[in-house]
Amino acid sequence: MNNKLFPNLWRFIGLTAVQVLLLKQLTLSLGAYFNILLYPLFILLLPIQLATPYVVLLGFATGLTVDFFYGSIGVHASAGAFAGFFRFLLFTAFAPKGGYSGKEPIFSPEHMGWSLFLQVSAWFFLSYLFWYFSVDNFTIVYFGTVTLKTLAAWVLSMVFVWLYTAMFNPKN
């Protein structure tokens, strides 16, 4: 159990700390269109075999933790819960022909290859960010703003996702 718990616990602490201590300040300095959200990577890198209800709860808890530091109670939590469910849909859509064998503990470049990992990450973050900004604005009037913020944040976040996975090479 510790074999799976500790890497995920450290990933949660590390990504949440980077998000609230560094990336939040970067967004405040550069402006509203320069959002970088890296902490959803924790949700994506949870064990593949973990049941979807647990992933949704962990996504909600992760988002609630970030909400506490951002002062936006509920927005990140909503997006985290959505990401936990959407992860199941993505993993199902991009599953190998025979399904996942269990040899791949997490959905990382080490186990899936860079091409597949970046494809799934791109869809995951695009949907996450669109949900996040939609809930943040909560009206159809700002659809253009939501779309622009989503695309800008998606490009910036994907750069950081690539850097994180290249630097830390998550395996467990």
Q: In words, what does this structure look like?
A:
With 172 residues, the chain is mostly helical. It has one domain. The protein is 73% helix and 0% strand. The chain has seven helices and no strands. The longest helix is centred in the first third of the chain and has 29 residues. It is globular, with a radius of gyration of 15 Å.
List segments where confidence is low: pLDDT < 50 over at least 5 consecutive residues: none
H/E element sequence: HHHHHHH
Number of individual domains? 1
Number of helices: 7
Note the main sheet: none
Structural class: mainly alpha
How would you name the oligomeric state of the polypeptide chains in this document? single chain
Principal-axes geometry comes out as: globular
* Average residue pLDDT: 90
Distance between the termini: 12 Å
In angstroms, what is the radius of gyration?
15 Å
In percent, how much strand structure appears in the residues?
A: under 5%
Relative helix content: over 70%
Instruction: Count the E strands.
Output: 0
